[in-house]
């Protein structure tokens, strides 16, 4: 099962062990070659017993003590018999690298070639059996060339900030309109009071014969009724104007996005009560 070079190595190692002086035979030797020869002998015994893993371990120990290339071929043969073709091919190629022209080189080459074919390399030759297969880089498809991603779209423009400057104007319109409604309500009150006094004076002698005397404060009642009537007219006019003005201000405040501050100033005169507005819309 071994190549011729392995047998030669075995003979040499056993010969070295037999050449020891008679007094030293049987005693452990310190000579690495002698120790390697003993390990080879044990490896052969294990191999013959089909214990190839143990034989491999012994051959490796022997190679460590005496690194003879022939031992690499023996290790490869043991791996092959142990049904480990990858390891067997590797050690046959290690032997051919160490001793490419040795007597066991043709044997190792033929074994390595057979193992390479077994592993799927159908195009292997004696010259390339132990050379790594050249791996050709995959051709790049121009259509598959990586392209730079397109630039991200620009961010949307910020939304214009609308400042509601008509808010104050609308608030002013609401307040003015409310004040106008109050003024109208008060004017109604004074109108009713004036009408009551007027009715009392007009109906003084109605259905009464003889007509009763006028009350002493008739002049005062007339003045009070006239004052109530004047207040009614003033408040009616001012309230109506305030309602109209408030409505206009509110409408302007809703339609205008920008406006200047509007100043509201009450105006009181001996004859009228009004509200003044200043500003630009």
Count of spatially separate domains: 2
Evaluate the radius of gyration.
Answer: 63 Å
Along the chain, the helix and strand elements come as: HHHHHHHHEE
Strand order of the largest sheet: 1-2
The major β-sheet equals: 2 strands, antiparallel
Question: Per the principal axes of the C-alpha atoms, what is the gross shape?
Answer: rod-shaped
Blueprint of the fold:
Elements: H1 4-18, H2 32-48, H3 52-65, H4 69-81, H5 85-98, H6 105-118, H7 167-202, H8 218-255, E1 263-268, E2 273-278
Antiparallel strand pairs: 1-2
Characterization of this structure:
By secondary structure, the chain is mainly alpha-helical. The protein has 2 domains: 4-20 and 28-118, Serine Threonine Protein Phosphatase 5, Tetratricopeptide repeat, CATH 1.25.40; 167-278. The chain contains 8 helices and 2 strands. A two-stranded antiparallel sheet has the order 1-2.
